Amino acid sequence: MTVMRFRDEFRLFFSFVRRPSLKREVKHATPVSGWMADWWPSCKISRLLAWAAALWLINIVALGPLVLTVFEMSGATHRISVHNLPWFQALLWAPIIEEMLFRFGLRRPLLALLVVPVLIYVFLNGFAWWASSLIVCVMLMLIWSMRHARMPSGSGWNWLRTYRWSFPVVMHLSVLGFAGLHIHNYEFVDLPAWMMVVLVLPQWVTGLALCWIRVQRGIGAAILVHAFFNAGPLAVAWLALQVAGDAI
Predict the structure, then answer these.
(1) Residue 195's closest CA among 92, 67, 105?
(2) pLDDT tens string 170-196
């Protein structure tokens, strides 16, 4: 099978943003199908890294100067300390929780109705050990349900047809929710609404890309790209601390 070039995927992504659709236009290059295809990335890791790199480039070159200017104007501070980098949260907890909460249901809307309330409860309770255990149980339950799923009935098909028609609205609402959640990364007293919007523009763009990856390549691929994307800034901050430490 001919592997699609990255620039062609990027072109499809822009088409998806303009006209969101559940149609899969990127063929699976790996020999997986059915329920497994949703969890196993349908491409090489290098392609997922390319998506993370493209998002880094967009956020740094196109959005970075604007966000930095507004950040300095607002007087806000970032909750993340460079001296206490949240590796576990950024590389494992956030990618799994946020992808399952905001994007798993894009292709599994009925299952999402069952698991999203649980995920919200887990998210609000943070890093407690029981919350992590609950996430594992939820994911195992989802895998079992998807493996043993049956074809929908007549009423089920009608519901799914309605969902496909409303998918563009659902997708964009999920991205807005994902972006809005990240305003919590900042500490501020009183901030105009337009400044809040600018500060979460990187998460909005990233959310759009992750939606496309979830629809085309599955939830497993979206989780990995999310983790790769988060790893970039943390790695840069860690290297800067090492260089600063050596210079002292």
Answers:
(1) 67
(2) 999 999 999 999 998 898 888 899 999
pLDDT attached to residue 91: 92
Tokens of 163: 């969902």
The burial class, CB within 10 Å (0-12 / 13-18 / 19+), for 105 is buried
Q: What are the sequence ranges of the domains in the chain? A: 38-109+167-247
Contact criterion met (CB below 8 Å) for 203 and 55: no
* Reported pTM: 0.90
Please state, rounded to an integer, the average pLDDT across all residues of the chain.
Answer: 86
Does position 246 have pLDDT exceeding 60, yes or no? Answer: no
Neighbours of 90 (CB within 10 A): 19
DSSP 77: E
- Residue 78 phi/psi, 5-degree rounding, is -90, 140
Sole residue written with tokens 């763009």: 205
